[in-house]
Amino acid sequence: MIRQKVCYTLLVISILLMPLTTHAQWPVSEVFLCQVKWNQKNVLVDKPMLLSGFNKNGYNNQPFFISYQEIFLTVNTDSFYTDIYQLNLDKKEFFQTTKTEKISEFSANLIPSQNHFSAVRIEKDGKTQTLWQYPMDRSNYGKNLFPALTNIGYHAWINTDEVAMFLVDSTFSLVIGHIKTGNIRKISQQTGRCLKSKNGFLYFSEKEISGLHRIKKYDPLEQTIVSITLLPEKTEDFEVLVNGNILFADKSKIIMIAPERPDNQQILMDLAPYGIQYIKRIASERDRIILVNQP
Fold this sequence. Notes:
mainly beta
């Protein structure tokens, strides 16, 4: 891991770019910031700002808000491995947070204690996938939270001790692990990759026979699951707002629903005029929406 903070200036470039080429097995992806005024009929304030100009033609994905000002990103530049980067949205700076030799780190989350973050690692054998905890100040090399689990794909923290994990196996199961006891309990199978922990609930998706993903909500206290809505074709990622409303994409459109009225879909914005055609992932914090476009 990199212990010394090395900052660079974020390149804020016009989003009307030339066609991009891919790096090896990592698809080209772009990260944009959108500002929204929720109290004015959800008006998009300015055109989307490209945040990943420092790595154009590269892989930039899995945004996660650390705070209103900062986000984690998974980045691949010109190597075989991915690393975690931090971006300061206000200062327009970035720095590389991890660079573990011959290991890819991805899917970074802030652990609720605020002093540590977690990331999934593809170990040196290229197959084993583990969940590691790192200190935010990069004072040490971290530790493996669940040594017995070797097939972790994605994760989301429910509280300081419990974490939901998407396991890569024949059924893509969803489990909850307790970091102090090591106990693992299975919640669901045929689970999608998108996990969101908001307002005391865990939101996830299940893939149905039709191929569509259905968003569901799990109550950790009651240990109950309720169905919310089906996602559009080829969509499996979503975001949950503080008020409980849910955002998801349908190609270039970001759609918002209220869980109690899932059939009442509101098109929040259509970003096709800005060259954004296929929105893969969404993250939000207050009036800021981060999205990933895969050209």
